[in-house]
Amino acid sequence: PGFENLTMGYNKYLRPYFGGEPVQIAMSLDIASISSISESDMDYTATIYLRQRWTDPRLVFHGNKSFTLDARLVELLWVPDTYIVESKRSFLHDVTVGNRLIRLFSNGTILYALRITTTVACNMDLSKYPMDTQTCRLQLESWGYDENDVIFTWLRGNDSVHGIEKLRLSQYTVERYYTLVSKSQQETGSYPQLILQFELRRNVLYFILETYVPSTLLVMLSWVSFWITLDSVPARTCIGVTTVLSMTTLMIGSRSSLSKTNCFIKAIDVYLGICFSFIFGALVEYAVAHYSSSQKYAAKAPQEGPANELTKEMEEVNITNILNSSNTSYERKISFTSIEISSDNINCSDLTMKTHEKIKCVLRNKMHRIIGYFTIQNPSNVDHYSKLLFPLFFMLVNVFYWAYYLYF
């Protein structure tokens, strides 16, 4: 039969079974390619072959054949108003003609296929980047017809989707995918919805070679300064400053590709921050050790003069005069000299002292005691302990880091 005879009296503005039961629309699709997945824009671009099947009793004809019609004849038929939810940009391919297919079966079944390239939003959680797994969706929904007019179903469940297991992506591997049938509740009604959900796991090997290994080697390079003597100021300062600057450059380079997603504290940012802290800590360690060493040498130098003078004065003291003096005067001299010498432990309980002087005296004693706690007696031990503590602590932090981001 001619197509003109079939469409005689056909109203394309009315759906099949108008005023009666809803139209069953079965869908299947092929994922031809996923060209890009953007973390900065949080979307992906895919080319899909969308196929829709439904039965229109007004197009039933005798025989058991099927006819493939010119795609331009779709303007004469009723077709579903399916659209892609969360699509930012979409277009229908038109080389050399519009990539559409219309196939008509004798029982009135219509196969309508389209080739579409679409950019769809995908909400990403980048807190575990680059060890993250992202879940993206492709949602098909009816725009104007609610569930009283049309019903969406997958043609063969999960087998309705093809091509996604064969995809080869630059940074990702498709872990699994599954199909869902849902409804979208809007203010204007409840609309049928089909969902294709797929999980993408990022390949971390590139980031290990590009970022993790260099940053770890820079931390290990900063430990070299612990084996250089404290007197070699240029060598140790050069290693510390160079490693800090190199680490800063590495951190800036790792963030340049994700400049629009700095609101996330990513796993790679945490690791780079840890490495920077260890490198900066090695530089601070040398500053503390060198300062303590210089203070120790400065404290030894002035003690030599007064010590010699004191011994000379003690030699000039007449022992017989001390023996002849009374016990009381001797005790007063000892108590007086002990107060002068031990300036650290001044007796603040003197009755002749005023209240504000007592407060100042107590605070001075406390400050001397606190400073004494933080005074490094042997600066060379700082390097000795750092050789052991820095690598051990760095290894411990790495164990917690990788265990948390890989298994939690």
TrEMBL record:
Cross-referenced Pfam families: Neur_chan_LBD, Neur_chan_memb
Transmembrane helix as UniProt keyword: yes
UniProt xrefs under Gene3D superfamilies: Neurotransmitter-gated ion-channel ligand-binding domain (2.70.170.10), Neurotransmitter-gated ion-channel transmembrane domain (1.20.58.390)
Membrane-topology annotation of the record: Multi-pass membrane protein
GO molecular function: GABA-A receptor activity; GABA-gated chloride ion channel activity
Neurotransmitter-gated ion-channel transmembrane domain sequence ranges: 211-329
Function: Pi subunit of the heteropentameric ligand-gated chloride channel gated by gamma-aminobutyric acid (GABA). GABA-gated chloride channels, also named GABA(A) receptors (GABAAR), consist of five subunits arranged around a central pore and contain GABA active binding site(s) located at the alpha and beta subunit interfaces. When activated by GABA, GABAARs selectively allow the flow of chloride anions across the cell membrane down their electrochemical gradient. Pi-containing GABAARs are mostly located in peripheral tissues.
UniProt record similarity statement: Belongs to the ligand-gated ion channel (TC 1.A.9) family. Gamma-aminobutyric acid receptor (TC 1.A.9.5) subfamily. GABRP sub-subfamily.
Protein name: Gamma-aminobutyric acid receptor subunit pi
Protein's organism: Aptenodytes forsteri (Emperor penguin)
